[in-house]
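Researcher: Sit down with what I've pasted below and flag anything odd:
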Amino acid sequence: MPSFDTKLDPNLEAVANAVDTTSKEIGTRFDFKGTSAAVEFKKKEKEITVFGDSDFQIDQVRDVLYNKLTKQKVDIRFMDVGKIEKIGGDKVKQVVKVKAGIEAELAKRITKLIKDSKIKVNASIQGEEVRIQGSKRDDLQAAQALIRKEIDDVPLDFGNYRD
């Protein structure tokens, strides 16, 4: 039975490269000289921490980071921006989580979308992925097009195609 998997899978190597180039740019830019502006990436936790002296400076560093992520072809919709926190004195930080794996709520939304569409395919949640199965390839392609059209708040990938 033909099938494919719908998943949320960022390229963490590209994210790490973007954070490194952001760090280098922060070190050389005149407007960041003598400040606590910095960027740090924890690969295991999939978190980017942005440090700065003020909310405005954090926004500037995050803009540089987003620019570098775009150049590395990493979709910005993978980023889940947290609140700005004070860390002592006049320093602040912000944690930006990199989304990976489909959350339960989004997986339920995808399966409900498929069931309500009356396309002759089955959607089942497989951990952090949603598997779509159908008897015809055309039905699978229609389901894929529907998912792309209706769910645009996250950059979904489709893979593991089987005949």
Observations:
- DSSP finds four helices and eight strands in the chain.
- The two ends are 6 Å apart (CA to CA).
- Residues 12-28 form the longest helix (17 residues).
